[in-house]
Amino acid sequence: MADKLNFSLVSPEAELYSGEVDQVDLPGTEGDLGILPDHSPLMAAIRTGALSVYEDGTQTYFFVQGGFADVTPDGLTVLAEKAIAMTELDKDELRVQLEAATAAIEELEGEAALAAQQNIDGLSALIAG
Predict the structure, then answer these.
(1) pTM of the full predicted structure?
(2) How far apart are CA 66 and CA 76, in angstroms?
(3) Residues with Cβ within 8 Å of residue 65, at least 6 apart in sequence
(4) Which terminal Cβ of the chain has fewer Cβ within 10 Å, N or C?
């Protein structure tokens, strides 16, 4: 069993994290995922929420919106549509996004409505926390 997980968090703007970690917890569209070294390969869609990185007894948190997580024998890569360190998060901007998402959901159906509701839930949780 490997001792560490090779992890990379990438957004369109930048690579936010790259290194060997103990664990990554991320918000998947089908439920939260905890990824440890030697995890079985998988690909999962990401929903709006907090991504947690555990490394040598410390935790680092990122806000992610959309994208994919890809676990391979080489490690975990998260390709997020949007990602930012929680320490840099602007809750006023989140409130604006929440208002826009709430207004737009009334006109959506099916998978689009589900994705919008997951976005609303994630934004609401981050604003409250």
Answers:
(1) 0.84
(2) 16
(3) 46, 48, 80, 81, 82, 83, 119, 122
(4) N
CB atoms within 10 A of CB 19: 13
Q: What angle do CA 82, 98, 50 make, to 5 degrees?
A: 45
Q: Which residue has the higher pLDDT, 117 or 33?
A: 33
**CATH number belonging to domain 5-86:** 2.60.15.10
> In this model, does residue 75 exceed pLDDT 90?
yes
Domain ranges for the chain: 5-86, 90-128
The lowest-confidence range among 4-8, 66-70, 79-83, 115-119 is: 115-119
DSSP state of 128: H
pLDDT in tens, 8-49: 999 999 999 999 999 999 999 999 999 999 999 999 999 999
Taking CA atoms, 115 is separated from 67, 103, 112, in Å, by 12, 14, 5
